[in-house]
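Per your request, structure below.
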């Protein structure tokens, strides 16, 4: 991880109709880090991620990417619940971005897809299964393999452990950390999972009132005086995990 920003956001405003969701927001995502974004439900976490990847328009402000992540072919995205194509097998889902962005032989497509399956801890035969045949944890892993298909410099994760039981969520956190350490990509992760913040993230950004209320290592965010940040990190559930003491 370096102090150079992989993503630099300045004065970002995003809204729908008369409602402003992101209100002159500033944020830097450092090159090579895992940044976890937390915030209240409906507070704009996924809106920010979707704006960064170009799925939602901004009203004003600047979003700049470092040269190594400037092309959207260098991004990988894992959406909430996986968002796999139900009519395609797991292998075909992984191959989808490759088919869209590269001219590769069927054999090479299969080899790459199988390598990505292995990378996320799945077997080659799992590639023949359709999404309806996958468990929740397997669905997340296939979606992650698809996000990694183009060897991205930037990986966007939207609630990656949502819907998983604690054991599966912990295994997925460990997988993200291992892949990050091995491949060296930058991760922007939207999450509400306090365990993930502890286990995975280098820094945490707290979104409240349309802006970043606190950002830094978890230990420094815990010292924030912002009312929402204090409520989130010093509540009963956080106390159970040993946070906010």
């Amino acid at each position: 991880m370096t102090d150079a920003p992989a993503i630099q956001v300045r004065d970002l405003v995003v809204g729908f109709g008369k409602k402003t969701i992101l209100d002159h927001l500033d944020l830097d995502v450092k090159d090579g880090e895992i940044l976890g974004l937390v915030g209240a439900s409906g507070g704009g976490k996924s809106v920010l991620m979707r704006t960064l990847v170009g799925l939602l328009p901004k009203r004003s402000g600047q979003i700049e990417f470092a040269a190594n992540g400037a092309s959207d072919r260098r991004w990988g995205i894992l959406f909430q619940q996986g968002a796999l194509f139900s009519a395609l097998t797991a292998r075909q889902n992984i191959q989808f971005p490759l088919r869209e962005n590269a001219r590769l032989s069927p054999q090479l497509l299969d080899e790459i897809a199988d390598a990505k399956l292995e990378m996320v801890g799945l077997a080659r035969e799992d590639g023949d299964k359709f999404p309806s045949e996958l468990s929740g944890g397997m669905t997340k892993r296939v979606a992650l393999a698809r996000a990694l298909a183009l060897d991205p410099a930037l990986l966007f994760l939207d609630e990656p452990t949502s819907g998983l039981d604690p054991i599966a969520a912990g295994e997925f956190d460990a997988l993200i950390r291992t892949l990050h350490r091995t491949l060296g990509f930058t991760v922007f992760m939207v999450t509400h999972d306090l365990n993930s913040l502890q286990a995975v993230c280098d820094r945490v950004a707290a979104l409240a009132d349309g802006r970043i209320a606190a950002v830094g290592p978890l230990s420094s965010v815990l010292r924030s005086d912002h009312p929402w940040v204090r409520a989130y990190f010093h509540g009963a559930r956080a106390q159970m995990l040993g946070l906010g003491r």
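The chain has a mean pLDDT of 90.

Regards,
D.
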